[in-house]
């Protein structure tokens, strides 16, 4: 029996790289076509969605938001912006109230400009920043726009200078950079003490499995039971139904499908549709056929990703 296409939600342990997880899943499922939806730092635990088979083609269409629970240690600055790096400065932190601290956190809510840590996977002149950093090269990173949808102060330990936060943010956001920058605006220093990702790309920690548990399930022959079908990960995307065999054949051969715009909007219970957004295309049995984009001028859905193309 072949491996099912779909997504696995791994609960990553500390010390394991995202690539390590992919490598182990390839071995457990005996398939090469495996990829993750976004790197999780080795010291970060929690939700790591893994795409298997044709699901790797759908990664870009998943929700891009991520949610973390983390702790920030004030008074310490490191070369990696987390507690595991080399300490380069130490400074006292302010003894302020929860209310005052939460006001400082306002500077990180909404759309902000963020400079990534120098030890990061950001490209600089064709090379990863962390590689340049490890070679002690001097370089600067440009600020990038990120979105913080939610930032909750969960606990403030004034005595030990430890802030616990819950943060919901866009892809590409570095929580280490928030720890660093929060320390600075408090006239102190800051670094990330620990971090767990509790959701990513529409997948949640409560639906995750540890690789060690997957190894046990493989011995029982149940390892593929944890694979989530691709279509189940696309609930956030509007749907277009192909009823006719001719339409399905046109789709599978890469041709545009004529569409009644009013019917499409009614089917998806919306007034107007943003043509820049993807659409999942299904047949009468609710089998996923692929992804398309709406062309309002031509009244067509144009294929972008076609499963079982002919």
- Helical content stands at 10-25%
How many structural domains in the coordinates? Answer: 3
Distance between the termini: 24 Å
Major sheet details: 9 strands, mixed
Rg (C-alpha, Å): 23 Å
Strand content: 25-35%
Shape field: globular
Order of helices and strands: EHEEEEEHEEEHEEHEEHEHEHEEE
CATH architecture of the largest domain: 2-Layer Sandwich
Sequence stretches where pLDDT stays below 50 over 5 or more residues: none
Strand tally is: 18
Query: How does the helix and strand content classify structurally?
Result: alpha+beta
Count of individual helical segments: 7
Look at the structure and name the CATH superfamily of the largest domain: Pseudouridine synthase
* Mean of all residue-level pLDDT scores: 92
In CATH, the topology of the largest domain is named: Pseudouridine synthase
CATH class of the largest domain: Alpha Beta
Describe the structure.
With 310 residues, the protein is an alpha+beta fold. The strands form four sheets. Strands 1, 2, 3, 4, 7, 10, 11, 12 and 13 form a nine-stranded mixed β-sheet that branches. It has a five-stranded mixed β-sheet with strand order 14-16-17-18-15. A two-stranded antiparallel ribbon has the order 5-6. The chain folds into three domains: 6-62 and 202-232, Pseudouridine synthase (2-Layer Sandwich); 66-198, Pseudouridine synthase; 237-306, PUA domain (Archaeosine Trna-guanine Transglycosylase, Chain: A, domain 4). Strand 8 (123-124) and strand 9 form a beta hairpin. It contains seven helices and 18 strands. It is globular and about 70 Å long. The model has no long low-confidence stretch (mean pLDDT 92).
């Amino acid at each position: 029996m072949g491996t099912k296409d779909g997504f696995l939600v791994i609960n990553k342990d500390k010390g394991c790289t995202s690539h390590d997880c992919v490598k182990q899943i390839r071995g457990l499922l005996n398939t090469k076509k495996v990829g993750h939806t976004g790197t999780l730092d080795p010291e970060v635990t929690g939700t790591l969605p893994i795409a298997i088979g044709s699901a790797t083609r759908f990664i870009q269409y998943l929700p891009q938001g991520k949610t973390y629970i983390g702790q920030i240690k004030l008074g310490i600055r490191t070369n990696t912006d987390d507690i595991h790096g080399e300490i380069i400065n130490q400074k006292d932190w302010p003894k302020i109230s929860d209310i005052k601290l939460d006001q400082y956190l306002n500077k990180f809510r909404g759309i902000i400009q963020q400079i990534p840590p120098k030890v990061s996977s950001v490209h600089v002149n064709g090379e990863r920043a962390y590689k340049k950093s490890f070679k002690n090269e001097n370089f600067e990173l440009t600020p990038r726009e990120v979105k913080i949808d939610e930032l909750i102060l969960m606990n403030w330990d004034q005595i030990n200078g430890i802030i616990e936060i819950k943060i919901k943010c866009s892809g590409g956001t570095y929580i280490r950079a928030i720890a660093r920058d929060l320390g600075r605006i408090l006239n102190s220093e800051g670094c990330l003490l620990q971090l767990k990702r509790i959701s990513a790309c529409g997948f949640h920690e409560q639906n995750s499995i540890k690789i060690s548990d997957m190894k046990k399930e493989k011995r029982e022959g149940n390892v593929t039971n944890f694979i989530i079908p691709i279509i189940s990960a696309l609930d956030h995307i509007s749907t277009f139904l192909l009823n006719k065999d001719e339409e399905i054949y046109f789709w599978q051969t890469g041709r545009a499908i004529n569409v009644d715009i009013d019917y499409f909007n009614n089917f998806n219970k919306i007034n107007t549709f943003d043509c820049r957004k993807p659409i999942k295309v299904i047949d009468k049995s609710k089998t996923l056929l692929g992804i398309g984009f709406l062309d309002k001028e031509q009244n067509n859905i144009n294929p972008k990703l076609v499963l079982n193309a002919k």
